[in-house]
Structure formats: C-alpha cells, structure tokens
From TrEMBL:
Protein name: Chitin-binding type-3 domain-containing protein
InterPro entries per the UniProt record, alphabetical: CBM5/12 (IPR003610), CBM_sf_5/12 (IPR036573), Gp53-like_C (IPR054075)
Gene Ontology molecular function, alphabetical: carbohydrate binding; hydrolase activity, hydrolyzing O-glycosyl compounds
Pfam families: Gp53-like_C
SMART domains: ChtBD3
GO biological process: carbohydrate metabolic process
Keywords, alphabetical: Hydrolase
Keyword Lipid metabolism: no
Cellular component annotations (GO), alphabetically ordered: extracellular region
Domain Chitin-binding type-3: 54-96
Amino acid sequence: MSAAKVDEVLPFPNVERGMGIYFDINGGYPEMKSFNGLHKDLSEAQRYFMQRGISEWSLSEDYPKGAYVQHIGKAWRAQAANAGKEPSVDEVWDECALAEKEIEELVKRKGHFYSQVNKQDASQFTFNDFGRRVWVDNNSPTTFTLPEISNINGSGQTITIWNVKSSAITISVGNSSDNISIPMSTVKSFKLMPTESVTMIVEQNNSWHATGDGMLKYSLLFRSSVTENGWGYQPSGLIEQWGACNVSGNGSVDGGYLNNFSIPFPNKCINIQLTHSGFSPGSVGVFSALVLNNNSQFRAYSSVGNVYPAGTAYYRAIGY
C-alpha cells in the first residue's frame, strides 16, 4: 500500500494514443503526486477484487466454462463458454449463492420450499405452487385441478393441501392421461374430507402420488366389520356395505325413511338394493332407495306409501 499523504496524491493525467507520456512541467516528468494517484487507482482495484472476490460481468468479455461473475447483485457461474450472454437472462449462466441468506433464498426458490401455510383461492394449481402448503376454507372453491405432469421437468415436486372446509373438496388431474396413485389403486380424482390433508408428489410415470391422513381411508383396504350392519373393502378398492334398514314413504322425496350407512363412502355410492325381510310383498310394496349427497345416508321407500311401524328391509350398497 502507498504511504503518500492525502495532499500528495493527484489523479494520473490521461495520455493521448501514440504520444507517450509528455508534460510541459517539471522538465517532461509527471509530478510525484500523479504517480501516487496511479498507485492509488491500482490499490483500489486490488481492494475491490479482494473485497468482492468476483469481477462484474462485461458485455464485451469472453468467458470460459466455469467462470464466475457478479451481475445485478448476484453471483453467476458459466455452464459453457460464452460472450455477450447476460446472466439472469440467458440459461448459460447458473445462479450461485455465497452468503448464508443467499443460500437459503436460492434453495427455497430452486427447490420450491416454503415455510408458510397460505390460503388457496384459485381452483387451478400451477408450477408456482410447488413446495407450498395451502389450506382451503369455506370461501375457497370446492374443486381443484393439479398441473399437467407432461409439462413438469423432473419429479419429486410437492403440493400439500389441508381442507378446513365444513364439506369435502375434489382434487383432480390436469390431463386425462395423468393418474393419482392412492393406496392399492389409481384414480383421476378423489375427495378430501373436512380436517383431512394430503401431499401430492410428482412421479415420473405421468402420475401423482398422494400421501397423508387424507389417504388413510383408502389404505384400509381388506379391512372389514362383519356384523349385521357391516362393511368391507374389496381388493379393487370398492367398498361394500350391508345391513338392516327401515322403509316408509308417502310419495314425496322426504317421505322415505332416513337411514345411515355404517361408514360414509369416501367418494360415492354407485348402487344400493333393498330386499324384504319377513314381510309380504303385497303388504309393503316394492322397495327403493335414494342415496344423499353426503354419501353417508340414504332414504328407503315403499311403493304403497307409509308403512307403520316402519317396515324393515335388508340393504346392500357398493361404492368407493
């Protein structure tokens, strides 16, 4: 470093091309203060590189593969030799992180990791939602669509959804060729019941892998409750329920006797049949049933109207 004092330093004068160094004073020699100024410029340049470590990117400079530069307050590494390729614009430059906070922000952004849980107001999930944890309330939509997997690079990206609505929501694939892998089966859509959560993970085979407590109802396959009013899971993923129910009716929709299934169908009841139980068909008529939208109750009807006391029948229902 220079030992010159403040009043002993002057900016070194510009030199015209081809003229050499020429001064009209001091017999053609520059002042010592000017040499001190030149030394100061070199010292400042050295300190700049020592303090910042990486030079600023230049539009006119050629960069070999592996070169490091600074640009718009960030560090970049060249993935290939290039010239005139601006970092942050051209993919030939890969962003680097040098400080702890920069590393944290870079990992969050590149890895799609987020620490906050936000409300989901849009029915369509996008790539920007990867890594997010969202919650759905009564003001949110009731149906949600996942991003199309064919437009996703790589695999392992996640979206976590928590339903705090008072009703179920439906989550569907973004393309008919995509699938959702649930325990023992694959589906195009599924219902997430109140208080349940699910984490959707991108797989490589055009499939989402669904995991979380919202999938527990599907993982209970092969389990059953074999009682008079019972239920059982079939290997295909279908759920069968059976039992005794009461039947009545006066011709109106609400006139049918309201019965409860042993367990709610997670998605839908697709068929229910009723048979007589010790009654003469002529006295109680033909039985029929209507499953309510909550998939946990059904109304049972008799074609002859009200049966008092309510006629008893057996039902068999299947759904998923």
